[in-house]
Amino acid sequence: MMIGGLYLASLSGSAWLFALGVFFFNAGFRGFYNASLLSISEVTGEVTRAATPMVFSIGWALGQIIIAFICMILINWRIIFLITAVPLTILLYFAYKQVRDSPRFCVTKH
Questions:
Q1: How far apart are CA 90 and CA 75, in angstroms?
Q2: Which of 3, 8, 44, 91 is positioned for an S-S bond with 21, CB 3.0–4.6 A?
Q3: pLDDT band of 3, cuts 50, 70, 90
Q4: The pTM is what?
Q5: How far apart are CA 15 and CA 18, in angstroms?
C-alpha cells in the first residue's frame, strides 16, 4: 500500500490522484514505521532497548535533512517522489524477506 501510494502520487496527473496516493502512502508508512520500532525494541537486549529506537529515529531525521537538500537542487516534484520511492521499495522488500516473527509472538503462538 505504501509503495503503491508513492508511485500513484508521483505518476498522477491531477490533484485528486496525488492526494489519494499520498493518503495511501501515509497510511501504509505509519504502520510500517511503528511495526519497525516495536520489532527493534523487542529483539534488542534490555541494556540497549531504549537506545535503538532513538538511533532509528535519528536516521529518519537525517533522511529528512538529506531529502531537503535534494529538493533544493531538483525542482520537479515527480522526480523527488520517484527518488524517495526507490529506497523505500528496496527497504520494504528486504524487511519482508528478512524480518522474522518476534520471539514473544512465537512463544505465545506455539
A1: 24
A2: 8
A3: confident
A4: 0.57
A5: 5
Evaluate whether 41 touches 52 at the Cβ level (below 8 Å).
yes
* Residues 67/88, Cβ–Cβ less than 8 Å: no
Q: Which amino acid is at 60?
A: W
Rounded CA gap, 80 and 101, in Å? Answer: 34
What is the rounded CA–CA span in Å between residue 55 and residue 40? 11
- Phi/psi of residue 74, each to 5°? -95, 135
What cell does 76 get?
A: 520537479
Write out the three cell numbers for 5.
501510494
pLDDT digits (tens, 9 = 90+) for 20-42: 988 988 888 777 777 777 777 77
